[in-house]
């Protein structure tokens, strides 16, 4: 099925990404011990690719030229192809790379021409880390509970105050996006561009068990000045500025997060094949079955990416199913790999230990499984899933044993 989903250029892109991913394994092990060592891996092809991903060609990005096509990672399907292979090399190192990341997707949704030129221009000028700050210490991603405030200043600009948590790459970022409240209710949430060199920006790295290279941080904003032209969505209606844009961003990114989980599962699956000796009998059957499951979930992720690319405003339900199933797959695969090597596996096989920790980290990226289930079943109750155009997509889930978030 994958062969019918991926065109020849996308298959060529996958092969190139697989080749580039080989250098990420060593980088990931180093970053797991010392996340600050990230600069020494700046010249890896995969890192250079991530640095230019999600920057449209019209803003100067060279993209990836392969099989007569130039890819910029602007579609969810392109990103799933790249991120699966890179995460198979190492998920932590992939997430530690500079680039537009989540902020780039939001800029594509909310940014005007001036804002895009400023943001993308800095990324093209030199490798630059970015961050995306929505989650708060006491509110999570609940829009109605956000307390970070954006208030008008005396000179026509704005002032940002508040705290965020679990924000990737924030301590090394040059710029990013922050969601803040201007008024009560969902329509009172706005997103702003933040230059981390501005006075009042503070980022404190957090200790993490998995995905350590991504340098998750706690942020604090203390009377941080936001120029009026850095408030996103000024040209859009209030209903399309805040949480609507965040939801659309998550819809577009979910297949990529799911692809990272598949990459981790594949790394564990292949490690047992390479290091576990000749598998026979029940062990061989179990491992073959895991391989079939990986392929099935990959197909689901590709379908979700295609649905998001076709209509990102309505494609969140299948993407949520894909993310939930892929995250569960990554945890199941890494733990199963450890069982093949006995009770001391995580001590005697450091790579497996890292894969288990990274797999657990992906579960909490972009919404844990309970959030994804809520999205799917809210869609079912509203009649948006299982009827009309969505029905064929749900039928495709049968290869994973039913609704993958169940």
From TrEMBL:
Limits of the Acyl-CoA oxidase/dehydrogenase middle domain? 132-223
Taking the record's annotation, the residue ranges forming a coiled coil are none
* Cofactor dependence: FAD
Q: Name one GO biological process term.
A: fatty acid beta-oxidation using acyl-CoA dehydrogenase
Q: Which Pfam families match?
A: Acyl-CoA_dh_1, Acyl-CoA_dh_M
What's the domain of life for this entry? Bacteria
GO MF annotations for this entry? acyl-CoA dehydrogenase activity; flavin adenine dinucleotide binding
Give GO cellular component annotations, separated by semicolons.
cytoplasm
User: What SUPFAM superfamilies does the annotation carry?
Assistant: Acyl-CoA dehydrogenase C-terminal domain-like, Acyl-CoA dehydrogenase NM domain-like
Any idea where the Acyl-CoA dehydrogenase/oxidase C-terminal domain is?
A: 241-379
- What keywords is this UniProt entry annotated with? FAD, Flavoprotein, Oxidoreductase
Give the matching PANTHER family.
MEDIUM-CHAIN SPECIFIC ACYL-COA DEHYDROGENASE, MITOCHONDRIAL, MEDIUM-CHAIN SPECIFIC ACYL-COA DEHYDROGENASE, MITOCHONDRIAL-RELATED
What protein family is recorded?
A: Belongs to the acyl-CoA dehydrogenase family.
Designated name of the protein: Medium-chain specific acyl-CoA dehydrogenase, mitochondrial
- What is the scientific name of the source organism? Amycolatopsis dendrobii
Organism ancestry:
Bacteria, Bacillati, Actinomycetota, Actinomycetes, Pseudonocardiales
